[in-house]
């Protein structure tokens, strides 16, 4: 089989990350339209990711955030997005490069993207938590999943009524009364 010198796989992933960039950019300007909301899974040890050391300790490999009701100051650039979220009533600012995103899912329309992401580990610590990044080989990388017209089964979640003033809208919130955790692995196609 001939070798792909153009690397179409990388070009396709970059183009699909552009979809996420455009969608988040529009949400930053105009807010979430209709029932749209997003589950974004990213590698916490990827280059350029900035999260608190508290969150990094809790999610040393990857983390899924939900952008739905309670997020603020969403800013989108060509290479990353920044967003404010509450984790257990503690406000946090997250910086996530698009290259660190492993999955993007909008359950309102059953749209899902998955990406191959270089798994990395931190080497050394400082006040910020990370001094340098070293790549770690990943043996079982997920395959790129393109949107399909075939509907997927609905996500089975149980949501309890939100308490007044609750800002929990993330997997790491610790408040199970208002947030449902849905693993993106359950939506991935099996090999």
From TrEMBL:
Regions of compositional bias (Basic and acidic residues) in chain numbering: 163-174
InterPro entries reported for this sequence: SspB, SspB-like_sf
Chain segments carrying region Disordered: 126-191
Pfam families for this protein: SspB (PF04386)
Protein known as: Stringent starvation protein B
Organism of origin: Phyllobacterium bourgognense
């Amino acid at each position: 089989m001939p070798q792909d010198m153009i690397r179409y796989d990388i070009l396709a992933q970059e183009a699909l990350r552009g979809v996420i960039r455009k969608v988040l950019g529009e949400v930053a300007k105009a807010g979430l339209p209709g029932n749209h909301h997003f589950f974004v899974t990213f590698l916490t040890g990827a280059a350029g990711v900035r999260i608190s050391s508290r969150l990094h300790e809790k999610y040393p490999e990857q983390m899924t955030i939900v952008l739905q009701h309670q997020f603020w100051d969403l800013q989108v650039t060509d290479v990353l997005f920044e967003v404010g979220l509450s984790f257990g009533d503690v406000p946090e600012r997250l910086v996530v490069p698009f290259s660190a995103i492993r999955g993007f899912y909008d359950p309102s329309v059953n749209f899902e993207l998955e990406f191959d992401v270089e798994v990395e580990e931190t080497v050394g610590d400082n006040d910020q938590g990370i001094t340098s990044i070293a790549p770690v080989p990943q043996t079982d990388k997920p395959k790129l999943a393109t949107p399909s017209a075939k509907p997927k089964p609905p996500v089975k979640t149980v949501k309890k009524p939100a308490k007044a003033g609750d800002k929990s809208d993330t997997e790491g919130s610790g408040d199970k009364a208002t947030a449902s955790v849905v693993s993106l692995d359950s939506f991935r196609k099996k090999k």
